[in-house]
Amino acid sequence: MENLWETPCGAEALIAEMDGGAVGYALFFPTFSTFLGMPGLHLEDLFVKPEYRGHGIGLALISAMGKIAVERGYQRVEWAVLDWNQPSIELYRSLGAASLNEWIPMRVDGEGIARLAAVSSQNIVS
Fold first, then answer.
1. Would you give the distance in Å from CA 119 to the centre of its chain?
2. The domain that contains 17 carries what CATH number?
3. CA-based nearest residue to 45, from 54, 32, 58
4. What does the pLDDT read at residue 124?
5. pLDDT tier at 79 (50, 70, 90 boundaries)?
6. Which residues are known catalytic residues?
């Protein structure tokens, strides 16, 4: 597994190849934990073409991310998984991953970003 791509914003990708072509990827970027006072990695997307699933490619990609985290001295590797994706949840748990049930993911997108940006400190209730 080779780290083939890095963006100016710090995102990186690992590309899995078989049969002379790309069959999967892991897209990730560094994070920082104020709890630990240490950096980590966030896996944004892990994808393997359907016809190549079940061959250990996803496992190889996430393992390669773990190796990168170890090499860099990072203390966490984190990601989200859809609640209906039971095969992936089972794989991740078998690797020692734990669900963070006490955390609720939040997101602002689309027009919500503009509304967020327009909030003034006068509108904030303390």
1. 29
2. 3.40.630.30
3. 58
4. 63
5. very high
6. 92
